[in-house]
Amino acid sequence: MSKRKYVKQPLSEWMKGEGPDSDVVISSRVRIARNIRSMPFPMMAEPQQSQSVMEQLLDVAESGRLNGLGQLERIRLSDLTELEKLVLVEKHLISPNLANESRNGALILSPNEAISIMINEEDHLRIQCLCSGFQIRQAWDWASKIDDIFEEQVDYAFDEKHGYLTSCPTNVGTGIRASVMMHLPALVITGQINRILSAVTQVGLAVRGLYGEGSEAAGNLFQVSNQITLGQSEQEIIENLHQVARQMIEHEKAARTKLLSESRPRVEDRIRRSFGILTQAMIMDSKEASQRLSDIRLGVHLGLIDDVKDQTLNELLVSTQPGFLQQTYGEALSPEQRDMTRAELIRSRLATGS
Ligand SMILES: Nc1ncnc2c1ncn2[C@@H]1O[C@H](COP(=O)(O)OP(=O)(O)OP(=O)(O)O)[C@@H](O)[C@H]1O
Q1: How far does residue 281's CA lie from ligand 1's centre (Å)?
Q2: Model pTM?
Q3: Of 8, 85, 261, 298, whose CB has the highest number of CB atoms within 10 Å?
């Protein structure tokens, strides 16, 4: 895989809109945080210490032990431009933290981009597995196998009483964050979302936006993840999230059916208006784009819009972000120019349909 592919193509394989319940769930993710025993956490490490952590972890990928994942790409963040790092954040392959703050940060990426292993982020090692649709158990299965391979070669910081030790106390224990990215427009339109999200937080789950911690839930996309990492087994964390997400999926599907049976003209009008605007507008800011693309996604799944694929909508989620637009058009764009190029890109992608 060339560097060209992972920064030039907006769509990772796990965003193809396939997988179970992909009418509601965009993607499932598990990430595992680990650290090397007797090494300061990245934030406290001296440059030569974080360099040694990076080399040690990159060596595991070089050793051939991860060969089952395909031809891995090993990327030192210092070899990337700021724009390339931003694009990787927009593709969910690295965190803003790794892009902006990391010293001796690196990334190990699988060819299909479903596995991205961050080095020297908040912790020495962050293993991330992404799957299309509702496949949280599958994501856990992969992440756990990769974790075992690293554990055979690296002495992890582990405490008998507390479990795996991490830089932030909220990750101590299992070091796992499992999350499901869901599109919940019908719950928003029918006014049920606040009740559901507050019930979800009461059972110990967190709700975040499209880009994780600190990001807003734009375009009716909500990321639901576990908050507790201590005192529960990995299996319990995964199963608890699975159960709650399953209920949310059913609520969303029921709300869609109700919308269609009780308010079809109003919903259809809203969706067709958004389609009209997206296929005609000359200027489109990112907030409006995500809201109207959410309407189109709903329209597709209600059977009110043909000829647009989930894949196209997922691709637009990434390709209309500021970094990606700038990369596509090959120059620094002002906010006004970005709004114009975003509108142009959406018009052309929706015109070609798929
Ligand atoms: N289900 C998911 N599908 C796609 N991307 C996801 C999903 N869940 C999280 N992400 C992405 O992972 C990145 C990090 O998310 P987030 O900040 O929630 O978690 P984290 O970094 O693993 O945890 P921490 O809070 O410990 O830093 C974000 O870019 C977010 O968009």
Answers
A1: 32
A2: 0.92
A3: 298
